Amino acid sequence: MARRLPLIALIAAFVALMFGSGALVAAPRFDVFEFENPELEKRYQALIAELRCPKCLNTNLAGSDAPIAQDLRRTVHRLLIEEDMSDAEIRAWLQERYGDFVLYDPPFRPDTWVLWLAPAGFLIAGFLVLARLLRQPAAEPLSDSESARLRDLLERD
Amino acid sequence: MSRASLFVPLGLFLLIVVVGFVGFSLNDPHKLPSALIGKPFPEFTAPRLGAPEELLDRADLLGEPVLVNIWATWCPTCMAEHGELLRIGAETGIRIVGVNYKDDPAKALDWLVRFGDPYDIVIEDRDGSLGVELGVYGAPETFLLDADGTVVHKHVGDINPRVWRDAFAPRVAALAGEESE
Q1: Which chain A residue's Cα is nearest to B136?
Q2: Which of B32, B36, B136 lies closest to A101 in CB terms?
Q3: CB contact under 8 A, B135 and A97
Q4: Is the pTM of this model over 0.80?
């Protein structure tokens, strides 16, 4: 039993390390912000999950390590806490400076309606084609002279 | 099935090719259009590089057309465009204002001594908050402002002779024309 102790200790250390490092990965590695209430924190988390990092093409602010994403998270936090802005105001504030890019969903405008309506358009077009194909009558049986010609063609070689 | 409808797939294919070709050549997805063009350069207060007790603000950018260049010593592309900025300053006489973006002032001053200083004044933006106001997402970026401080043009990436000739020189000339009228 005494000889097993080091082994048990080793396993315990290993397990602790496993869970410990897991916690390290899960915990935010940077910017620890204070929030007065969980409601504000929830809004903050939702905003940084929704806004797009301008540098990284397809990562949100929450998921990016880019310095600009860190700056923008800090900015969102400041606008939320110090400026007491609503979610819509914060989105508009960033959009004014970084353009539509920071919003994953572009606003519906004359120059973006194709983007929004095209998928529905394609779907409708697809249904129309399908409907036409289904409506086409089954092929009519061949007349006697046609079957004779067909047999003739098939037997030619 | 009429004979003409046999060509429908080919037509669709060509349509896709054309749309794809146009779509992918539209622009570089890394270059975002600036939301600031046509709008006034934002208000700010920030220390002057090399003289931090002196505070600069928007008024320091007014009076004549000015290039506002966002740079940092940690940014290799800024190094690449530095010579071109020196040339532009010397040859065209346009006022160039630097924004030293998220940098160490000592390193920045050292860099200007070593490689030459194209800037009339340099604004210190250590925490990048002016950068956020400007929609900066990567140095270098360069803004062209008119005499009233309205953003006329923005370029992301290095200023090289081609960029200067194609994107900046005509606009600078237009601004100079407006002024003399």
Answers
A1: A98
A2: B32
A3: yes
A4: no
Outline which parts of chain A fall under CATH 1.10.8.640. 31-107
Looking at CA atoms only, how far is residue A24 from chain B in angstroms?
A: 27
B157 touches chain A (CB under 8 A): no
User: Which ipTM did the prediction report?
Assistant: 0.74
| Distance in Å, alpha carbon of A99 to nearest chain B alpha carbon | 5
Exposed e or buried b per residue across A81-110, where buried means at least 16 C-beta atoms within 10 angstroms of its C-beta: eeeebeeeebbebbbebbbbbbbeeeeeee
Domains of chain B are 37-180 (3.40.30.10)
pLDDT tens track, chain B, 181 positions: 578 888 889 999 999 999 888 887 776 666 776 778 889 999 999 999 989 999 999 999 999 999 999 999 999 999 999 999 999 999 999 999 999 999 999 999 999 999 999 999 999 999 888 999 998 888 899 999 999 999 999 998 899 999 999 999 999 999 888 766 6
Could you tell me the sign of the dihedral formed by the alpha carbons of B139, B144, B150, B153, in that order?
A: negative
Determine, for residues A67 and B135 on separate chains, whether the beta-carbon distance falls below 8 Å: no
Query: Is CATH 1.10.8.640 correct for A31-107?
Result: yes
Which residue among A57, A71, A95 places its CB closest to the CB of B35? A95
